[in-house]
Known about the structure:
Elements: H1 5-13, H2 31-38, E1 43-47, E2 56-63, H3 67-75, E3 87-97, E4 100-107, E5 116-128, E6 131-140, E7 144-156, E8 159-170, H4 173-204, H5 206-220
Antiparallel strand pairs: 1-2, 2-8, 3-4, 4-5, 5-6, 6-7, 7-8
Amino acid sequence: MIRSFAVFLLLLAGATASLSAEESMWSALTQQQHAQLLAGKQVELEEEISGKPWPRFTIYHLVKGTPADVAAIFWDCELDPKYIPNCLSVRIISRPAPWIHDGEYTLKMPLFLPDEVYVSRNELKRHSATFYEISWKVLRSRYSESCSGSLRMEEHDGKTLLCYSNLVVPGSHRLAGLLRSTAGSQVVSSVQALVRQIDSEIEMRPQLLEQQLHSLEHALETAK
């Protein structure tokens, strides 16, 4: 997943309204949002949630490659420290099933806070040949009581529309208040880092992408 302080910020922010696997994310967006995406820009949504210390952030981006390409890159979580800001380390600590892995992430935190170390259970699903989803649930965390989220990827005119979303129950309202002012910019930059990695692999590192696609298919072979 996007493993950085920016990810932790997004965990604190909230989740998008859920769509069923059969619904098109593209059709749920407005014409103005379509124009932004087609121009290569992110669609960034922010919504205040009653009773929550953080707003809801939703990030959409239209990227090169197929949904399988994007899913393969995102599924390769141990590569995250190479390109995600403030991600210090990632290691897979268990594989309950081929399509599920538990990863331990270490993130550099701001304001002289100790590093965040959390364990996330990540699950891969292929709803169709053109619609993939990777979801996660944090099992242990220093700074959050609970959090979960997903990355959805659907085909659109030879590219892939991705939507990153997350929901968290912060362990500390004080911490949420301290970090709120930087949340939006950190989330945006983290998703942009993922987009750059996708572009880089498709254009310049086809062998790495081929290996990731092989790992993705292996994970999905026995998935229900």
